[in-house]
Amino acid sequence: MNAHTKASAVSRIVEPRSVAIIGASANPDKRGYHMINALQKAGYSHPILPVNPRGGTILGLDVCSDIALLPNGVDLAVIIRPAEEVPDILIQCGKKGIAGAVVVAHGFGEWGDKGSATEERLRQALATSGVRIIGPNTSGMLNCTAQADLIGLPELPPTGPISVVTQSGGMILTLLEDNRSINGPGFDVIFGLGNQADVGYDELIEELGQRESTRSIAIYNEGFTNGRRFVEAAGRVSQNCPIVMLRGARSIEGGKAALSHTGSIAGSDEIASRVLPQQGVILVDRSDELLPIAALLATASLPNMQTGVAVLTDGGGHATLAVDALSRAGVPLASLSEGTKAKLRKVIGEEATVGNPIDVYSAIDALPDVFPKCIEILASDPHVGLVLTIGMFGGYHIRFNQTLLEGENLAAEQIVAFKKTTSVPLIFHNCYATRMLKSDDILREGGIQVFPSLDWAVAGTRALFERANWLSKKNFRDQGVTSKGKRVSVPSGLSAETTAREILQDLGVHTGKWSAASDAQSVEAAISKFATPCAVKLDSSVVVHKSDVGGVHLGVTRESARSAAVGITEAMASQVPPVTDFGFIVAPMVNNGVELFVGATNDPVFGPVIVFGSGGVLVEAVKDVTFRAAPLSPLEALDMINETRVAKLLDGFRNYPKVDKRSLANFISSVSNAIMSMENLAELDINPIIATEGGIYPVDVRLVGNKLG
What we know:
Layout: H1 3-6, H2 9-14, E1 19-22, H3 31-42, E2 48-51, E3 57-58, E4 61-62, E5 76-79, H4 86-95, E6 100-103, H5 113-129, E7 132-134, E8 141-143, E9 148-150, E10 159-166, H6 169-181, E11 187-192, H7 201-209, E12 216-221, H8 227-237, E13 243-247, H9 261-265, H10 268-278, E14 281-284, H11 290-299, E15 308-313, H12 316-328, H13 338-348, E16 358-359, H14 370-379, E17 384-390, H15 396-399, H16 405-419, E18 426-429, H17 438-445, E19 450-451, H18 454-472, E20 488-489, E21 493-494, H19 497-506, E22 515-517, H20 520-530, E23 534-539, E24 552-556, H21 561-573, E25 583-588, E26 594-603, E27 607-614, H22 619-622, E28 625-629, H23 634-643, H24 647-650, H25 661-675, E29 678-679, E30 681-692, E31 695-698, E32 701-705
Parallel strand pairs: 1-2, 1-5, 5-6, 6-7, 10-11, 10-12, 12-13, 13-14, 15-16, 15-17, 17-18, 18-19, 20-29
Antiparallel strand pairs: 3-4, 8-9, 8-11, 21-32, 22-25, 23-24, 23-25, 26-27, 26-30, 27-28, 30-31, 30-32
Helix pairs in contact: 4-5, 7-8, 11-18, 12-18, 13-14, 14-16, 16-17, 20-21, 23-25
């Protein structure tokens, strides 16, 4: 057995060195013929093993009449047979030691009840056979580097650094054409996942991330079978290989009745849009951005995070649009030094606009040779982390005079030569780029991306800064994240607040000063102990909204303690049906602070998730919240805080007290650590939390466990 045969089954699927076509056909109209033909046309150099009960030859290859006659230990089988036959075929493949299979057939779970029985048989066969599969209902896979075309394309796309994982065969075709339209860098491995009955996104990105030939991974996703496994894998892979994702099916969200605010504000799209970037995934919103951004991430260096963008332009309109778009994306413009400005004026004229954007239009007679000089000057400025060149460079011979063609090509060569000497990334927009210009090809072959769309160029700039920012913080990502090993089971349904606070405290969360009380006398004793006006609240596992039913009294003193306790007791007696099993919780009043919200939910896709934002009675209406997968470090929690609108109040806006954000971040992190130790957690609300100059004070705690049975 050679080293490759000893590799994992997923590794052998990704890089197959033998392929069996089960369902091979001599009919040129059949997919079983197309697959063999595509492999041969692509130049696949390893064994191709057709399987068909009729035997004979297909395209010059001897056909095995039975799977049992195949050599032992084939890497990959492509199964081109009806769905009902697939489970039995997998069992036969397992007996021959076949590592993996691509299951093309449809008619499984995607057919609803009609296909569910077949999919269940498929899963049983997977467990029995030990064969790993891609699919079913997949468009196939393609390893351009190994020339293994298992999709059946008319021609092999160019080999390059981008790998693709998608649930849509149509998106594969779109990405191939997008790469062609921008003369992109090409592809390493492409996967159509189909139904994800077995191998999913997480395993594939882990495998692709280890390949030297993959330098970025482009994903189109409509849903995860296990989102938690994906985000954990993405966090590891993104440290060395960038991941860019376009998400579909984002609007699917049903309202749900919940016992906590968290359940009503935590929609699937809102969670995904925060949790995925937390793990280094670059999200794009448009289908036409996926390939260009993946191409840029695969070929460009990253900017220094202490810098900004220098915009080099030959026209005001493009410059205005670029600066507006960069501002919306949160990408800073570089502040050029006076020395840099002086050098630029020597190249493009004393009256030139060199503030940033830098407009070379005044040097029109000297174009295009001013571009290499300006780029070199800008990239040498320590405040510049990226140079974005926008406008017509490459198309001056079209716009003005054909005699400029040779000069543009020479300028492109000079820019490529300079790129080899600098770590500053260079990005080009050229409004003539769709004309497949020689100068653009020179730049691209030198690792500099040229985009016909200004939007793509700006989106790419944002992606590079976003990735640089994420990587700059990776060494701090686990600091403050603890795993005590303690497990606490959350009671089913709504817990009494005293129970909720005790669970949190036991798991290391500071819940402030409070005391449980069973009657009016103990309420009075608790207030006497605190020696300050207190809030007296109902403590019940039955009543959800205490204040709505007279279950909260504020500013209670020792003198009014009995009255408050009696008032709550009478309010409970008036309920229909009466509430009889309850107690009281007493806590010192906290005034003059900012009301905040910290919550948690056990998301069905991404697992334990933390929520932070504005708190109080309007939390659901305002929805000033953001999300992260738990656990998270104080540094990640600080990022959460600064994403929200309420963060401005925490800085001491007008009459609000200035709050120590780091203390708040530590609190959020402690909650995230705690929920990782909770079994049966459904939802957690700590709302409001009063944040003051003196500290963080949880006012109300609501904990909900999943219903059992």
